[in-house]
């Protein structure tokens, strides 16, 4: 399950040979949109829990279990326990927080891929055949992978703004914020606070992960089908049809850190928190001093000081709801770039945090527990 959850949205059929990659009629494209939306809705609770684990939100204590060697270890709550906690807090509808922007993102991705296929039809390209020699088949795989990469990159760029909104809506569960309450209001808020670039935070690691996934998956599948599968074997065609699917699961685990970094960057320090708070601190200091004069004892002599400071404290408490707690310390520092985020996770040994949702071992050595 963990590996499948980390798979990029691109197809896993052999290069140029999948039905999903064939440019079909308008009815088929509409069917793909409905199927994509249905799959996104069905898998949304899984993605929701996975994102909360990625940002480091652990509201439930670990439990003592045993590993395969019989030693006592601490296990963090799995998907079903975590999902039950969300239901207790927000109800069953809470499992689908952030679903609307994700459905729009999925629809935009599917429509964009279909548009690119129409602009660059697959019929104009040569498909890999068993009768091709090694150089010819490799050349065809490279061309088809390049075409697939172009479709994936374009669809990622188009759908990423809604992906960012979906991520931020979901992580509001951590701090109980209400900053991103709707798709259109979230678009206006992000544009006002962060500009156009705010819609594309975390895009680079996502694209790098998609590109590495496609090339590794297609090339590995090609070499295995060419050199490891014997044509004289009776089930050779069946094995070849599943090679790319299996390679996709394996490669997705290697590219998972790119997915993790991209998601964390999408929710990190939303709205220039540090500069805003610094400005508020300066105002909170200057206003009472201006009203109370320049006396050295102004801190205790001004009768309006306590009222003003109390108002500032209330304003500060209200402003905290404008920021996503999941994107700030202690969950994560303010990252200067996605490379900074990568290095931080690597130093903490957390580059694969959230890759597993069933058996999640707590980062405490089992030797710390007494043996029976």
Automatic annotation (TrEMBL):
GO biological process: apoptotic process; positive regulation of apoptotic process
UniProt-annotated stretches for the region Disordered: 1-21
GO cellular component terms attached to this protein's record: mitochondrial outer membrane
Predominant subcellular localization, coarse grouping: mitochondrion
Sorted UniProt keywords: Apoptosis, Membrane, Methylation, Mitochondrion, Mitochondrion outer membrane, Repeat, Transmembrane, Transmembrane helix, Transport
Keyword Repeat: yes
Ranges annotated as spanning the membrane: 196-225, 245-267
InterPro entries hit by this protein: MCP_dom_sf, MCP_transmembrane
Entries under Pfam families matching the protein: Mito_carr
Subcellular location: Mitochondrion outer membrane
Record membrane topology: Multi-pass membrane protein
Oligomeric and partner information: Interacts with PSEN1.
Function: Protein insertase that mediates insertion of transmembrane proteins into the mitochondrial outer membrane. Catalyzes insertion of proteins with alpha-helical transmembrane regions, such as signal-anchored, tail-anchored and multi-pass membrane proteins. Does not mediate insertion of beta-barrel transmembrane proteins. May play a role in apoptosis.
Protein name: Mitochondrial carrier homolog 1
């Amino acid at each position: 399950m963990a590996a499948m959850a980390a798979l990029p949205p691109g197809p896993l059929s052999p290069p140029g040979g999948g039905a999903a990659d064939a440019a079909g009629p308008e009815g088929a494209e509409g069917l793909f949109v409905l199927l994509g939306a249905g799959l996104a809705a069905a898998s949304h609770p899984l993605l929701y829990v996975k994102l909360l684990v990625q940002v480091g939100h652990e509201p439930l204590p670990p439990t003592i279990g045993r590993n395969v060697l019989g030693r006592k270890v601490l296990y963090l709550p799995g998907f079903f326990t975590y999902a039950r906690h969300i239901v207790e807090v927000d109800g069953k509808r809470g499992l689908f927080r952030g679903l609307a922007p994700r459905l729009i993102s999925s629809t935009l991705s599917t429509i964009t891929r279909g548009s690119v296929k129409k602009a660059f039809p697959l019929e104009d390209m040569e498909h890999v055949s068993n009768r091709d020699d090694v150089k010819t088949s490799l050349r065809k795989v490279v061309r088809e992978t390049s075409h697939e990469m172009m479709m994936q990159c374009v669809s990622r760029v188009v759908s990423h703004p809604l992906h960012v909104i979906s991520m931020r809506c979901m992580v509001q569960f951590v701090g109980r914020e209400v900053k991103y309450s709707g798709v259109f209001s979230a678009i206006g808020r992000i544009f006002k606070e962060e500009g156009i670039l705010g819609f594309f935070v975390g895009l680079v690691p996502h694209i790098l992960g998609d590109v590495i996934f496609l090339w590794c998956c297609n090339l590995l599948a090609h070499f295995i089908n060419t050199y490891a599968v014997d044509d004289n074997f009776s089930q050779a065609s069946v094995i070849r049809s599943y090679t790319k699917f299996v390679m996709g699961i394996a490669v997705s685990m290697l590219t998972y850190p790119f997915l993790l970094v991209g998601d964390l960057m999408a929710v990190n320090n939303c709205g220039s928190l540090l500069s805003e708070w610094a400005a508020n601190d300066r105002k909170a200091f200057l206003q009472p001093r201006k009203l109370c004069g320049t006396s050295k004892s102004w801190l205790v002599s001004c009768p309006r000081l306590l009222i003003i400071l109390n108002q500032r404290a209330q304003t500060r408490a209200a402003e905290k709801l404008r920021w996503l707690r999941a994107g700030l310390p202690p969950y994560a520092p303010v990252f200067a770039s996605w490379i900074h985020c990568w290095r931080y996770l690597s130093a903490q040994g957390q580059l694969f945090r959230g890759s597993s949702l069933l058996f999640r071992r707590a980062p405490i050595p089992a030797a710390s527990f007494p043996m029976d």
